[in-house]
Design goal:
Radius of gyration: 14 Å
CATH class: Alpha Beta
CATH architecture: 3-Layer(aba) Sandwich
Shape: globular
CATH topology: Glutaredoxin
Strand content: 25-35%
Order of helices and strands: EEHEHHEHEHEEEEH
Helix content: 25-40%
Number of helices: 6
CATH superfamily: Glutaredoxin
Low-confidence stretches: none
Structural class: alpha/beta
């Protein structure tokens, strides 16, 4: 069963692109003692993610943070190099671009999408969640092919 409101985020190590290359970051580092908006996409540089999902969070970052959010994080089952390059190409400096390259957090959340039919392997389902001190308070899980309930505008309204 996938993660739900009221559940704690599992302890997993992810990667971010640092000045000297990929660096480890744990879910405890990200969520402990903070209010975080985490949204996940099936793939960096893919059309729906690049044209619709990520830009909404970039444009609304200040409004989201004004609602008491410490961190806005974007997660994808891609490597840190890809997530770093995608973030730069989309002017997403205000966002934490998280690489779940081994699909560990995505599997632990039970939010895996099988994109094998598209040559993409295992990926994350599209979702957004509000996490308070490591506990999910809101989860907006998209049906396949949609970018609606997990949009920045919808999450902003839930804050």
């Amino acid at each position: 069963m996938s993660i739900q409101a009221g559940d704690k985020i599992p302890s997993v190590t992810l990667k971010v692109m640092g000045e000297k290359g990929p660096q480890d970051i744990t879910t405890d580092d990200i969520f402990a003692g903070k209010k975080v908006v985490l949204f996940a996409v099936p793939g960096a540089f893919t059309p729906g993610c690049t044209l619709t999902h990520l830009p909404g969070y970039v444009v609304n970052a200040d409004k989201i943070k004004a609602k008491g959010v410490d961190t806005i994080a974007c997660l994808s089952v891609n490597d840190a190099f890809v997530m770093g390059a995608w973030g730069k190409s989309q002017n997403a400096e205000e966002l934490l671009m998280l690489a779940d390259g081994n699909c560990e957090l995505t599997k632990a959340l039970d939010l895996v999408m099988d994109g094998s039919g598209f040559g993409m392997g295992l990926r994350s389902r599209r979702y957004a969640m509000i996490v308070d001190n490591g506990v999910v308070s809101q989860l907006a899980l998209e049906p396949t092919g949609a970018v609606d309930v997990s949009s920045a505008e919808n999450i902003l309204a839930l804050l």
